[in-house]
Amino acid sequence: MNQLKINETEFDAVIIGGGPAGYNAAIHIAELGGKACLIEKETLGGVCAKLGCIPTKTLLAKAALFETVQEEAKKGIFLTIPLVDTFSLWKSAEEAAQKVQQGVSFLLSKQGVSLLLGKAVIKSISEVIVHFKNNESEIIKTKNIIIATGSRPRLLPGTCLSSQVITSDQISQIFKRKVFPRSIVIVGAGYIGLEYASLFNTLGVNITIIENLPSLLPQEDQEVRSFLIKSLTKKNIKLLCNREVLLVEEKESKVKINVKNLQSGCSENIETEILLVAIGREANFEAEELQKIGLSFSRQGIFTDKHMRTNLSSIYAIGDVAGKYQLAHIATWEGLIAAKNIMGQRGVMDYSKVPKCIFTYPEIASVGVQTKLQGKAFFLANGKAIASGNINGFVKVYLEENRIVGASIIGNHASELIGVAIPLLGKDALEVKEFIFPHPTLSEAILEAVHNALEQRTKIHSQ
What's the whole-model pTM score? Predict the structure, then answer.
């Protein structure tokens, strides 16, 4: 990494936090001809690379492979079903994370970004103090500051973490146990809770999900939600919605959870080996530090405008700490917008075409808005789905008049397919229906859904 003459350099921006938001902002500033200094207190890549996106998707991919082998063995294609070494499974996730971290380090070095490993404290709007691990510290001068410190797991009130009560940040503990747990209760049916439910269920763990809301994923299409609930139930995942956790007690090798039914008012006790708390993440910042410099924030995050600028014109906030969308791809884009504005190019953040992906079994993905005028295509009739042996799920496309305004997908590779739908937003469906999609591919279902939406529109107008 570049050698830094700290006392002789004034940077265009000091970026605090080396996750997707921070390192992408640093790289873009350097690409635009600026001097960028990135400060990271732990490891590059943030939660995404170390504990979140990359390791979890590695685990989910391996578990999906295991599930496929199990299904094919039932058909006689495989004569034996292999056993899973959970320790090696986690090791593969760590290796994937390390490769991503090494890639980030290479890109920073290639673009001439100065990297400092230490804890950053904002002294003023133009100065950041870095406390290094050797107990030394330096003051970095800068024209702008970007706060990209990410998020941390929310905890259940009155509950302490332990070897049996964990968050997603401690998930490695499960894989490093001498004996893999037979039961896990997950509190929270958001994307984190649901993804881990799918993962551990596939690995043979009895899963119970406790959710405070009346139903899971209220922002998703009703048919998508119903399909997912049926899929979870079919896999013997127990889903308890409209519930509140009143008390958590650890007794020897068990965790006892007292849960109240918010509809009936009755309570029940649930026992499990592991309690995984997945009730969301909160912006990671020190309130006292921000108050000292006059930065505006709430419990949800630091306030920013559409340029990712805070109430202090030379300080920006991006990624999870900004409290808008806790998604790595949004954090990356916010980093680009902040970099553009710092370097004199006008950048505006637009959240209207943000894709959302949930890597459950089956996967869910959506983008845009949902309307009553819609077309649906089932994978049951898709050649590639039939060939691959996974015909569960469907695609929905939403229209306003002839214009495509949204899409929802549930099924195998939904997270990849949504990337095909995004460029179609705003286009005339009559034009899109003339597109030629390759065959056999899952993406053909998107085109079929467009056709069906137009047929639905014709029926409505003919009434």
Answer: 0.93
